[in-house]
Amino acid sequence: MSELPPDLPEEIVERVQHMLPRDLLHDLRTPLGHILGYSELMIEQMKDAGNEEYIVYAEKIRKAGRELVDMMKANFQSK
Amino acid sequence: MPKILLVEDNEMNRDMLSRRLIRRGYEVAIAIDGQQGLAMAQSESPDLILMDMSLPLIDGWEATRTLKGAIETKDIPVIALTAHAMSTDRDKAMEAGCDDYDTKPIELPRLLGKIEALIGKLA
């Protein structure tokens, strides 16, 4: 934060601290897409196969991935 | 069966999204860069193109501008897909000629809604 002017209001400093470089946000979204997409595909295929035993695990992976996406949306904006 | 041309350089994105679209009854053709995407838009005559924007050789913006400037491909709907999620990214895609825009991670029901809005629901 040394580049920031010292007289910036605290509110502004806090907002800037929550900004992530644009490329980093892009790079986070790509593997998150893989986690969500493949877990949803697993759920669909296991439902088709009547394999109820492992659906719960795939649901947990999907839920965790979705939480990460929501967290990213709620807390970070790109520079 | 409607044919979708997926132009995407990331192997896992290609694999995952094509499998999910095929499961829903679409035929999927795949191009791995913008140059191949332009060639396949001509040779495959897809009903719709899903265009990643950050592509090697020819990026998605330039590829879309080329498609929309060619008489053979100008009427093929193009949905831009990008992991950049700012409003300026949407504007940039629409200015290039994309018919719609969606962000990664893909939410399949939302994307399917956009596809259906452009080419109609599957019978």
Plain-language structure description:
The complex is a heterodimer of chains A (79) and B (123). Chain A is mostly helical and 79 residues long. Chain A contains 3 helices and 2 strands. In chain A, strands 1-2 form a two-stranded parallel ribbon. In chain A, helix 2 packs antiparallel against helix 3 (52-75). Chain A is 76% helix and 5% strand. With 123 residues, chain B is an alpha/beta fold. Chain B has one domain (3-119): Rossmann fold (3-Layer(aba) Sandwich), CATH 3.40.50. In chain B, strand 3, helix 3 and strand 4 (78-82) form a beta-alpha-beta unit. The longest helix of chain B has 13 residues, at 11-23. The N and C termini of chain B lie close together (9 Å). Chain A binds chain B through residues 22, 25-27, 29-30, 32-34, 36-38, 40-41, 44, 65, 69, 78, and chain B through 10, 12-13, 16-17, 19-20, 23, 54, 83-86, 103-106, 108.
Number of strands of chain B: 5
Mean pLDDT of chain B: 93
Residue windows where pLDDT falls under 50 for at least 5 positions of chain A: none
Question: What about the largest sheet of chain A?
Answer: 2 strands, parallel
User: What is the helix tally of chain B?
Assistant: 5
Number of domains of chain B: 1
Span between termini of chain B: 9 Å
Number of domains of chain A: 1
User: How are the strands ordered across the major sheet of chain B?
Assistant: 2-1-3-4-5
Please estimate the helix content of chain B: 40-55%
The portion of residues forming beta strands of chain A comes to 5-15%
Structure annotation, total helices of chain A? 3
- What's the oligomerization state? heterodimer
Order of helices and strands of chain B: EHEHEHEHEH
